[in-house]
Specification:
about 525 residues, alpha/beta, 8-stranded parallel β-barrel, 3-stranded antiparallel beta sheet, 17 helices, 14 strands, about 40% helix, disordered C terminus, binds 3-methyl-2-oxobutanoic acid, binds zinc ion
């Protein structure tokens, strides 16, 4: 009897996922996500690309030094400095992996690398050998593998394994593959590469044609032993293979795939919400597995069937993916222990100090709202752990808006002990005027790219969550604000984004001149 293959789940939310515009996370946010990924049961966490920036290096090092329970991986190009830097960041991990990549397709060889096939093989071999000198767990990726000539791909893979690669990852970098194509590539590698049994074959699909999950499953059918994916499928352009979808496909259609993963599927929805809250990239309502409508049956005929027997229209149970039937509701008499318990169930790991602050905020909110739902608690926690230096905070505002008239805003912001106030009569509406006032006081000019208001829970007294995306110096910055007052939530969100811009300018050594000489 042959035992069932176990498929390794390699999560790259913190590396490839973070590359999606506006999804960048700070170190404490990355630590939250990394811990949630361990709780979810992923095998490998790709924590970042250490040479990309000092911030990336610090994030990978902090995760490697502190997170236990998964292999921690760092990405490196096939270059000595990249590999050395990756190892420097990873060496404190319980188990580390260096992931080296080099493009192999004709178009990349000719235009990007200007290298011929033999040079590519030499470079790949040298890099894998260097990385293998640091640690035994080495992954090699021939970038754009799906558009690489199959004979050459086989040569590169064989050489990388001989040089010490223990995992060979096959990226569909531009999301060009189809299930038959990707399945064929994996089958050919297994048939033609003589040393292929010495490495795990991994699959890494982008979703440009909406086929990333289907392509990853096709690879598993042909013997891939690792899937690279991200929570909610976030990633560059159309994103990466969605972890929750591919895992639930393997589980629900176990009759067909006959393979298992170590994922605790009940953690899928909490982890999805955590990543959506942290990145500000919400999932669409009809998103498979984790969308709000994924288990909602509206059609009368379906509801009738469901009442008679759930399995008539339900192929997975909501509880299997961690979708609680009803939120556990807390109120003003709930204590710290109940709050700590809910925070843990939602996937957060709060320090004693953080819990105390969130508890104080929770009490204020519970006084305003009768019932406090999970989403309210998540929103409060997000505010606490966000860890953006609060260069400016709101001291107060007054807004006069009337139909047919230009609104007037008087806004006071604090920077340290000093306060600055601006009165402006501008804009197309109250939010526009408020944002202008923030720009005036802070001196930070941005282009607003996105502005969303949504209610965190149900009811007229629900908290409003506002997310904004602004552009400054060609970079995207996100901001988020929560309040039962949607105007205040908007100012908070905009100011949060502006504070991120200020922090980035500070890091780059070009801080803004303070504009706080009393009232201006
Ligand atoms: O899509 C890609 O090719 C990648 C590699 C670095 C694995 O992300
Ligand atoms: Zn990728």
């Amino acid at each position: 009897m042959t035992s069932e293959p176990s498929i390794k789940i390699f999560d790259t939310t913190l590396r490839d996922g973070e590359q999606s515009p506006g999804a960048s996370m700070n170190i404490s946010e990355k630590m939250e996500v990394a811990q949630a990924l361990v709780d979810l049961g992923v095998d490998i966490i790709e924590a970042g690309f250490p040479i990309a920036s000092p911030g990336d290096f610090e994030a990978v090092r902090t995760i490697a030094d502190n997170i236990r329970g998964a292999v921690i991986c760092g990405l490196a190009r096939s270059a000595n400095d990249d590999i050395d830097r990756a190892w420097d960041a990873l060496k404190g991990a319980e188990q580390s992996r260096i992931h080296v990549f080099l493009a192999t397709s004709a178009i990349h060889r000719e235009f990007k690398l200007k290298m011929d096939k033999d040079e590519i093989i030499r470079r790949a071999v040298d890099s894998v050998r260097r990385a293998a000198g640091y640690c035994p767990d080495i992954e090699f990726s021939p970038e754009d593998a799906s558009r690489t000539e199959i004979e050459f791909l086989c040569r590169v893979v064989e050489a990388a394994i001989d040089a010490g690669a223990t995992t060979v990852n096959i990226p569909d970098t531009v999301g060009y593959g189809t299930p038959a194509h990707i399945g064929g590539v994996i089958r050919t590698l297994r048939e033609r590469v003589p040393n292929i049994h010495r490495a795990v074959i991994s699959i890494h699909c982008h979703n440009d044609l909406g086929l990333a999950v289907a392509n990853s499953l096709a690879a598993v059918e042909q013997g891939a032993g690792q899937i690279e994916c991200t929570i909610n499928g976030i990633g560059e352009r159309a994103g990466n293979c969605a972890l929750e979808e591919v895992v639930m496909a393997l589980r629900t259609r176990h009759d067909h795939y006959r393979a298992r993963t170590g994922i605790v599927t009940e953690r899928l929805v909490p982890t999805s919400r955590l990543v959506a809250n942290i990145t500000g990239i919400q999932v669409q309502r009809n998103k498979a597995i984790v969308g709000r409508n994924a288990f909602a049956h509206e059609a009368g005929i379906h509801q009738d069937g469901m009442l008679k027997e759930r399995r008539t229209y339900e192929i997975m149970r909501p509880e299997d993916v961690g979708l609680a039937k009803t939120d556990l509701v807390l109120g003003k008499h709930s204590g710290r222990a109940a709050l700590a318990d809910r925070a843990k169930a939602l996937g957060y790991h709060l320090s004693g100090e953080q819990l105390q602050t969130v508890f104080e905020q929770f009490k204020i909110l519970a006084d305003k709202k009768k019932e406090v739902y999970d989403a309210d608690i998540a929103a409060l926690i997000e505010q606490e752990i966000r860890d953006v230096p609060e260069t400016w905070t709101i001291a107060g505002y007054r807004l006069v808006a009337e139909s047919g008239r230009t609104p007037t805003v008087t806004l006071s912001l604090k920077r340290g002990e000093e306060e600055a106030t601006e009165e402006v009569t501008v804009g197309d509406g109250p939010f526009d005027a408020l944002f202008h006032a923030v720009e005036r006081v802070t001196g930070v000019e941005v282009v607003c790219r996105d502005f969303n208001v949504h209610s965190v829970t149900v009811g007229k007294d629900a908290q409003a969550e506002v997310t904004v995306e602004v552009e400054h110096g060609g970079q995207i910055f996100r901001g988020r604000g929560v309040s039962t007052d949607s105007v205040e939530a908007s100012v908070r969100a905009f100011l949060n984004a502006v504070n991120r811009v200020a922090a980035s300018l500070e890091r780059a050594g070009t801080p803004l001149a303070p504009k706080v000489a009393g009232n201006v």
